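Blinded run. Sample ID left blank on purpose so nobody reads anything into the name before looking at the predicted structure. Input follows.
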Amino acid sequence: MTRSGGVSQGEVAGLQCGFGAGDDDADVRANRRIVSETVLPGARLVTPYQVHSAKAAIVTETWAWENRPQVDAVVTDRPGLLLGIVTADCAPVLLADRAAGVVAAAHAGWRGAHEGVIEATVDAMTSIGADRSRIAAAIGPCIAQASYEVGEDFRKNFSMADDAGFFESGREGHWQFDLAGYVGKLLRQSGVSQPESVADDTYSATRADDGSFRYYSYRRATHRGEANYGRQLSVIGLAGPLAS
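Blinded prediction complete.
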């Protein structure tokens, strides 16, 4: 989802779906209902407590908000559950094995991706019946390489094998990192043969009609000195009777 629509106001105006963004909680809940009803009417939205980890959880039922697990990917084979993750520059990854009826949503920032969240997600999917060769994956809007400047300390987290082709030289002592490309590589290494990417830059993409920004972006908000930044919500689910 982009930030178009929704009921939030102020700096995070639009379809702002993250709690902790200086937004009204009632507006966030309303925006989440808009997303849920647009994608899978009647479904129960399930979102984790994201911590930039390499952990994935298999979901069989909804959980109390205060008891949601600290993971960065959620996986299910239960119709009627809508899996969601929030992002604001990190890569949202949605995965599905239609034949097995298994879906997943993963939050892949550079750290989680580097530490194994993609591999953990695919492993969790296969543990409940998915086949790697059948999994389709889409990498949603995230910060693009042209907007993602990093320093030498950042690059040192990656081995030469890790970073091949994903760093371009920038200004002195800095690099431009290709997060979507890196996540795509990890998906292919996990057996997902042809991941697709939206290739839209959360930092810079604007609407054609009025020039306003299409997405929420942590880095852009920081560079502009804004007090808060919003989050977009990416969701995937299985149609069918609600899970009990």
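Unblinding after everyone has recorded impressions. The CA atoms of residues 82 and 237 lie 4 Å apart.
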